[in-house]
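User: Design a sequence. Structure:
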């Protein structure tokens, strides 16, 4: 009895954007809210990147580009994959999109039929499941917990694969947990996948550059090169270069699939913004030392946040390997306070303590809260003082 499509009724608005919007609304009403909801770096886009965009405008680079991205940006992406990841693609295997979000949207539209299943390990980035549903396929959520470091175990993966499984999504380092797979863990998952040639793999490497480990970044295609022909490598400039508003993501994979994804994009957005593409090209080609102070700051804040959380009664938090998120368990707090769930806890923390956090349920994991430390130490200290005060009350 509604005029809206079943497709749109089956999905929800992005909960992380909703928390941030709600915190901003309360702030506008004059409430003192510390928002730890944001999924974006608090740093400014580096100057050399901005300059490239300003130059693009001045030079009149303000028209349609090729749907799949400018040759210059695509070449920079090819070289980035070769240099950083030892992955060797041709430009025809690369697609530039309006953020990493559109890369995954295009992939699902190009790949999935009704009834197809997509394995999504939880806790997951909030958009995977809804984008799969928009493609009229079925997310098959595999739950992980703190004991496995929020990582899917090979036996779990094997048990989740059915004849209808078309895609597995891996995201490492992970939003929202910050956990990253080791090469050995990826090898073990690859071993399972070898027995199921119908399963494609999407490796979402969006947080590749925000990594705290000694070991260099690896994805499943690095560890299992034989799986590369059925892997789509997704990445973007949003998080690494503090460029969330510019909306440039990119991916590389099998040419026929990339062609099909380009067709979807050609009938939805056309090319990503010409000016932003020039900025992204500059980001990838420029002096990468701008990343270092940002990663160092994230790491210092991570250490501070995790240490303080683990001193709070009823709270448990794992060390992350990357990203700017921590994903502490509040299961005991919820039980001891007689709260219904993490949604109610987040609500109380917002109302009574003035701290905005995203409930774990949004990521398919009840009983946790996601804390973004993409904010100043001063804000983090204030927020943690308030959470501590709330827990003591
Ligand atoms: N993948 C993950 C894991 C993310 O956390 C995000 C953003 O939150 C994206 C992809 C999409 O990024 P973009 O802003 O480039 O669309």
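Assistant: Done.
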């Amino acid at each position: 009895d509604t005029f809206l499509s079943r497709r749109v009724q089956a999905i929800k608005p992005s909960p992380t954007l909703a928390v941030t919007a709600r915190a901003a609304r309360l702030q506008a009403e004059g409430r003192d809210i510390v928002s730890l909801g944001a999924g974006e770096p608090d740093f400014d886009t580096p100057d050399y990147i901005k300059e490239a965009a300003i130059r693009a405008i001045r030079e009149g680079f303000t028209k349609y580009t090729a749907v799949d991205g400018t040759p210059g940006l695509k070449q920079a992406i090819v070289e980035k994959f070769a240099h950083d990841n030892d992955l060797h693609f041709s430009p025809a295997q690369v697609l530039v999109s309006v953020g990493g979000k559109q890369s995954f949207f295009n992939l699902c539209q190009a790949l999935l039929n009704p009834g197809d299943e997509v394995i999504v390990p939880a806790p997951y980035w909030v958009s995977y499941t809804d984008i799969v549903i928009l493609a009229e396929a079925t997310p098959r959520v595999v739950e992980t917990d703190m004991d496995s470091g929020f990582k899917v175990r090979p036996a779990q993966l094997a048990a989740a694969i059915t004849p209808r499984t078309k895609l597995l999504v891996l995201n490492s380092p992970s939003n929202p947990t910050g956990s990253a797979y080791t090469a050995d863990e990826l090898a073990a998952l690859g071993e399972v996948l070898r027995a199921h040639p119908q399963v494609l793999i999407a490796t979402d490497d969006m947080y590749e550059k925000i990594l705290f480990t000694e070991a260099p970044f690896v994805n499943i295609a690095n560890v299992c090169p034989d799986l590369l022909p059925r892997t789509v490598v997704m990445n973007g400039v949003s998080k690494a270069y503090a460029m969330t508003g510019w909306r440039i993501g990119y991916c590389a994979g099998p040419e026929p699939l990339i062609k099909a994804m380009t067709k979807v994009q050609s009938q939805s957005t056309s090319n990503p913004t010409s000016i932003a593409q020039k900025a992204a090209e500059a980001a990838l080609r420029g002096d990468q030392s701008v990343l270092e102070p940002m990663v160092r700051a994230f790491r210092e804040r991570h250490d501070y946040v995790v240490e303080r959380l683990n001193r709070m009664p009823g709270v448990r938090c794992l060390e992350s390997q990357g990203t700017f998120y921590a994903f502490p368990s509040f299961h005991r707090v919820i039980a001891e306070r007689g709260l219904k769930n993490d949604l109610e806890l987040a609500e109380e923390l917002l109302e009574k303590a003035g701290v905005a956090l995203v409930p774990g349920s949004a990521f398919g994991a009840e009983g946790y809260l996601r804390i973004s430390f993409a904010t100043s130490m001063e804000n983090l200290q204030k927020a943690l003082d308030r959470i501590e005060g709330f827990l003591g009350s």
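The longest strand covers residues 165-171. The radius of gyration is 21 Å.
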